[in-house]
Amino acid sequence: MTDHAPPPPRWAVVGNPENRRVALFSGAVRDAGLPAPRVVSWADVLRGGGAAFAADEIVRIESPGENAEVDRLLRGAGDPTRVEGGARWYAAFTAAVGTLTGGRRLDDPDELAVLFDKRLCHEVLARAGVPVPRSPTSGGGTPVRGWDDVRALMAAHGMPRVFLKPAHGSSASGVVALETAGGGRIRATTSVESAEGGRLHNSLRVRRLTHEPEVAALVDALAPDGLHLERWWPKASLGDGSADLRVVVVAGRATHAVVRTSRTPMTNLHLGGRRGDLAAAVRAAGPAWAEALRTCERAAACFPGTLCVGVDLLPAVGWRRFAVAEVNAFGDLLPGLTGLPGSGAEGQDTYAAQVAAAIRRHVQHHPTRNHRAPA
Fold it and tell me: Which of 27, 92, 267, 372 could bond 262 through an S-S bridge, CB–CB 3.0 to 4.6 Å?
């Protein structure tokens, strides 16, 4: 009997069809000479109670963000810029991921649930020996019901400067950089603004609060969705601002990196942060640069069922020590950025690198067989 070459793998992506993330990933699949992925919309998944995939489909889960209807289905009715609703979003998102069946998954459902809870993610990293800022809320066992609890935790753990993060937030939504000093002095830096009716909204403008009643009211409003507290890591400087890095890890290898600098505690680009000079950061780190990348790979290794993560890495003053601030499930949106030298992804953007890695993992190691698609 004559052997025939197996058919090319089939791909599917769960996302918002109009979103650039879906377009970039689909383009990477086509550029690899493969048929375009089948796109399953988050709106259909949420309204229809799930989606099924054939046993030979390689399935990528994309971010459900930047779609007002999907945000309403996950978070409830209201302005998409609002901060509140993170706990409801998390419960609805993880439940929706659980309704996806079949396929060869690039994103492990249980790992996604950990990645979208900063308290659980911190505990997983700490237990694995990955350097992280010290946190009294690691694991989620310590309740943070409001400002009084935050004050008590800061005092009990000797933390006059902390980052206060919504447990299920992203893109610095709801983050408060909090500093206290003698004489009752306090300063909170945040992009959150209060709107009519006391609702909290994300703003593109970072502001500072220096009156404790105002800070207390903000923290009390954030607390019902869950809060994670971390010691403020003294970050290294680059140019005229402090710096951190987003490092993308694909299939266990640190493949892409960007430096973000800012004069405020938040380096997010949409909050006024700037792309820094990566070559300058590598020079500043010197021999420690290899350790920086290894630290990111160790963080990613805590999530072996997830093909790609974006690691937020904090360099300490002097660029010789590093800590992991967060690990992001959807941290690969770096259009046009090609791979690091020696990474194996030279000349590839983050999406092309993932397609190549998925082929190695799911096709070359597990040749495609014919399966009957689910009815």
Answer: 267
Tokens of 332: 């690969």
pLDDT, tens digit, for every residue of 13-60?
999 999 999 999 999 999 999 999 999 999 999 999 999 999 999 999
CA 81, 82, 84: angle at the middle one, nearest 5? 150
| Local structure of residue 363 (DSSP, 8 states) | I
> Are 322 and 130 contacting, i.e. CB atoms less than 8 angstroms apart?
no
22 and 15 Cβ atoms separated by less than 8 Å: yes
Stated pTM of the model? 0.93
What's the DSSP call for residue 217? H
**pLDDT per position as a tens digit, 282-339:** 999 999 999 999 999 999 999 999 999 999 999 999 999 999 999 999 999 999 999 9
Chain position carrying tokens 């290898």: 253
- Strand, helix or coil for residue 324: strand
In angstroms, the CA 69 to CA 189 distance is: 31
β-strand 200-209 against 186-194: which pairing, if any?
Answer: antiparallel
* H or E element in which residue 279 lies: helix 278-285
CB 156 within 8 A of CB 150: no
Exposure string (b/e) for 184-202, b if CB count within 10 Å is 16 or more?
eebebbbbbeeeeeeebbb
Q: How far is CA 147 from CA 90, 135, 193, 220, 364, in A?
A: 23, 16, 17, 6, 54
Q: Which helix (H) or strand (E) holds 285?
A: helix 278-285
- Separation CA 149–CA 134 (nearest Å): 17
The long-range contacts involving 371-374, CB below 8 angstroms and separated by at least 24 positions, are 371/54, 371/55, 371/56, 372/54, 373/54, 374/52, 374/53, 374/54, 374/101, 374/102
